[in-house]
Amino acid sequence: SPTSASSHDVSQGHEIIAAFMIQALRSRGVTTSRDAWCYNSSSSALLKNVETTINFYNSELARWEAFGSEANALEDFVRVDLTQISWGGDILKHLSRGEALSVDPTRVVQSVYRPFFKSWLYFDRILNNRIYQMPKMFPSAEASNRVIMVSGVGAKTFTPFMVDAIPCLDLIEKGQCYPLTVYDDDGSSSASLFDEGQGGGEGTGRHGVSDAGLAYFSNAYPREKISKDDIFYYVYGLLHSTEYRSLYGDSLSKELPRIPCVKQAEDFWRFTEAGRALADLHVNYECADPWPVTIKEGDLRLADIKNPKTFYRVTKMKFAKSGKEVDKTTVVYNANITMQDIPLEAYDYVVNDRSALEWVMERQAVKTDKASGIVNDANRYAIEGMDNPAYPLELFQRVITVSMETLKIVRGLPALDI
Fold it and tell me: What percentage of the chain reaches a pLDDT higher than 90?
């Protein structure tokens, strides 16, 4: 059992090391308690939503300080208007302390909200209920990093996923994050996203793999020259092993991953190479070659598209149906476009209990939050963020490629000989 093994040299039969010993830092993803207000596919819409809720918050703060604080319980005093604010999480504690808010456009940063779905996030220590250790992983909008995210304790299924932007907690169920780089705050930048007690500037980056982790693997393979980068990608490759997830499935549902050393150095390097390839695929999915699906209406490259924004607008992708039978080889993108000849095998790549392709179908849509009435239109990210109205269509095709390549790499992993 991985829960009882010691962390010593594999040559002595002790082959397991806890992931938290390998990594110098771990953190949950961001939890806002008000996603409709703090996330949006349009950065301009996001700022308007934030302005609305902050104005309401400040008006309630002024009322409370004027005549409510002595005679009323705060929870009973504030007005509950879900079209103006969500009082979830600890935001009432900040109001009780007299903390006013102001809109700061520099707090709008890119985030990964769901698998293969980027969104704009208003990253703020009050409007976000918990930011955990994210400032040490992404200390500024310009800071680069890679983060292995895995399912947390109690998740229905175990999933590893790599991101290069601030992740939402629910990107992966109960998600736990392990960074490639940890940024130590040296307070050098007063213009940081993390002013007001959230940290200073980007500071000095150090490796996310601990010295203890490096020593452990160096002792396991004394003839090999192993770097911390190698260990980071070894872990990512190993976590994709179907044997690993089968062998340690019970433990993975109850505790964070523990990492075995494989017996042969050759297999260590194979897992490392696979981990690098998987990481590149999953982080750079927007650059993958689009899979050559068949467009029922004909080759779009030959079409005379006078208004691309209208032509490519998507509200909700759907599988085709033949009677009651769902045909996953065909996806109706919109009234203008139907994709055919989608390989069924691509749906075998599952992230967080759902295929990667079905995540794309769910998130590349127009959604309205019932409580607030806020509209989140994925087409706005395509137009404003990517300058490409066809982005949702191309994304689906790219994620087919990512799925097929991921399956190929995973099936080529070595046997788990530990």
Answer: 78
